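Minutes, project check-in
Item: structure for the 396-residue chain
Input as provided by the requester:
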Amino acid sequence: MEGGSRDNGQLPPSNQPGSSTHQIDIAPVQPTQPARTRVGRKSTCIAKLTLRNSDKVKILFDNRRFMPIGPNKGISDNWSSYLCFLGRKEPSILICSWKKIPATTKELEKFNVFLCDGDKEIEFSENDVKMQSRFKKKWIAYVGCRWDVFKTNLTTDYIYGDKKDPPYVTDYKFVDKPTWDAFVALRLSPEEKAKRKKAQEIQSHNKCPQRTSRGGYDLLEKKMIEEKIKERQEASEDPTAMIPPPSPPTRHERWKRARISTSGQYTTSEVGLIAEKIDSLEEQQSSGTFQSSGTNDLLAVAIGKPDHPNRVRGVGRGYTVSTYFGKQRNSSGMMSREEFNKTIAEMERKLQMVLSSQAFSGSEPISPAVESGEHDDMITLSLYVNPHSFFLLTLI
């Protein structure tokens, strides 16, 4: 759905691009041909955005995920598809890596997209400039990811798959015949075959594949909320009563739902085992025997692995650990009070074992050197811990 079925003309440059992380302008494009009716689910050039000849389209973004929000909902929903459609047309599919594409090609302005703040020219503070850079970096990286997936899909569908007609005949008119012939020869080389096999081996380790649509977790969350509202309406005695909006589904609820196939079964047996752990932890949480905190929430405990710093499971694209859970006050090297107490107890036990052991075989236990007759009682050693600090205090 993100690809294009034909080339709709060159993208006109802009003389004065603005700058903002809250809003973008997409300059109008003069179409060379009228829109054509689509039949079935095929690749599209996003006609709502490409076949425009009037004012610029404005799309708002949030500052946490840099995802489209606000008005122009129909345009915002197609934003990522539009950007990827333009992104796959610019770089050649013969380039082996996104990193080797010139930096001048990997610019939002190259795709006719400009950051702005309404119709005003403004000066940005240092924080705004940093946020602009993050916005561009994030979306250009996403375009690069989809560009790699596009080449993979071409290989899977047209070289090793069932599609016999080349893509320049059926779906992707911007891929000409010479480029496609060179791409096929490149993908059938021994080096590329080895890369393909290695990637397949890595993918085989994915024991918990998800089954979400193109809308991802955002659309899944919307559907789950609508289902909750419908259930409340059906359970209500008064059908005309106002139903309060339900709370959004939790992270582990979305994770489980995303891994249920159309048949109603979990995608793999491993997913089923994790789902059972989640159900068990939910019962413990209700009874008060389990309490989650921060990144160590119910889903992380059930899976047994922490989240990647740049990705968060069950919440969709755009979140990092710091943006979703918030910045942690303590560094990863700090331990909790419970862990600290256990460590102290273990150290005390080991220290007592050392002091009670014999320095030589058959000799007496080690004791402080004391002149005979100076003290009538044996000197004892105890371990004390200051409750207000993490220092060990030993007193003899």
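Outcome recorded: Strands lie at 23-26, 57-61, 68-69, 113-116, 382-385, 392-395.
No further action items on this chain.
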